[in-house]
Amino acid sequence: MSDIRIGISGWRYAPWRGDFYPKGLPQRRELEFASREVNSIEINGSFYGLQNPQRYANWHADTPEDFVFSVKAPRYITHVRRLRDVGQPLANFFASGPLQLKEKLGPILWQFPPSFRFDAQLFGDFLAQLPQDTDQARACARHADARLHVQGYLEAAPGRKLRHAVEIRNDSFLCPAFVDLLRKHGVALVVADTAGKWPYVEDVTADFLYLRLHGDVKLYTSGYSPQALLRWQARIEAWTAGTQPEDARLIGPEYRPAKRQRDLYCYFDNDVKVRAPYDARHLLEGLGRSPQRRQGELV
Hints:
By secondary structure, the chain is α/β, with parallel strands linked by helices. Helices cover 30% and strands 14% of the residues.
């Protein structure tokens, strides 16, 4: 049976307090609350700056046993260095604590800015550097800056496969060479709904799917109607069953992925109007995957 994870991108948003989060809920317990409403969360603080092993360990402890995080990789690698000379930044990232999530560590998201154009050599070299399992990630982390060699920085669940996903925002990526590279390295192409602002493609390039739903009418703001959620539900059911939607928007339409069950991770990022957690919950309910609510002790 496919593992279907539906959740939210981040969880610390002031407008959610007194709405999604019950009035009076301490901020330090917001993750505890949110992780019992959805079954996965995308950590986005890691995009803006390196965290630390203790923080990741705390997030692991605050969430249910059967919970999964995705981790958004640092923009320093994708936006500042733009994939050039990133060996040391990669080591620093893996030393900063994501391996402390242990069995709760899901995919790592690599998001690229709209100004970043596809360069086959540069991109291929980058994908080849990504660790494919936790043992490789630990080996990478050993080369981190000395300041990051703190307690817990090498702790990890041994031998666990790592998954990577790439989100694009430039039309230069809409070429077969790009999807060929992703398939070669087993990296997922993010299906990103951005209200038409950036490329929307649905090519299957890995043994899992990764969706980011930023809003279908207004970026980061608009919620998804019941009809829109039903459409996403049907697409998710097709992908996880090993097929793809008949109207899938593909870079390489001639390619037919192997018919096998696939895991799927989907995160709502339309947080401005407090729609993300409710849309995630409704989609989970439609798919019959809702975690049981146990909120009484949290308020």
